[in-house]
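SUBJECT: A protein chain and its fold
Encoding: whole-number codes for local backbone shapes
RECORD BEGINS BELOW THIS LINE
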Amino acid sequence: MGTVTRGTTNPNRLRRMDRWIAAAYGAELRRAADPVAVDLGYGAAPWTAVELLARLRAVAPRARVVGVEIEPARVAAARPYERDGLVFRHGGFEIPLSRSPSLIRAANVLRQYDEREVAAVWQRLCARLAPADPATGSRGGLLVEGTCDEIGRRHVWVALGPEGPRTVTFATRLGSLDRPSDLAERLPKALIHRNVPGEPVHAFLRDFDRAWRAAAPYASYGARQRWIRAVRELSADWPVTDGAGRWRQGEVTVRWEALAPRG
């Protein structure tokens, strides 16, 4: 179920997303009885699935990865890369697994879809996630859906649980950034057409640029210090959910409700 994507992929393209997943969700993966992650729509080459396995196992040694692609030829081409903990399957948004995964990563998959289709895809994928378990304190599985540039310097993604969207994360190689609103071109499909006056995401990026300009004196200490100062100022008016440890990585995460499209 779904549409064949262009399949563009590069080694290390999704490192920022993977790094965030490992930090934000590693504890949940360690708690899971069978921590299975899905790399949905990995593309014409299996590099992102191979890298996801290595990065997840650094924080959750029992993690397994299933690469899922709707194009059968891509699945056949990936099969030689299978190993302990890594397999490839033909499929799409239905997620062809016999059990509910702990994680679904869908990077650059919805870029070609119409904005009106996003909510239904999110709902379908969230319904496939492992459910919350109050007995263990688990909030359930995680869907991470977003977009990045071809070499992974700029990336924006939404994190969703079984209940729906939770947060939006902006991540960048700080040396490549002129101003935070440069990230607008990598907004996920649910937000990219909403970067217009009157929409929350537009106001957020406007305020981020303003904080970035105000933090210009910190540029003499490097782009990282300027970013940290700008995010600290931004957090006075926006519900930033992370702290300086993540900001130092060129990231900032905001509650979904603050940026959700109006209407």
Notes: The chain has two domains: 14-171, 173-256. The longest helix spans residues 15-31.
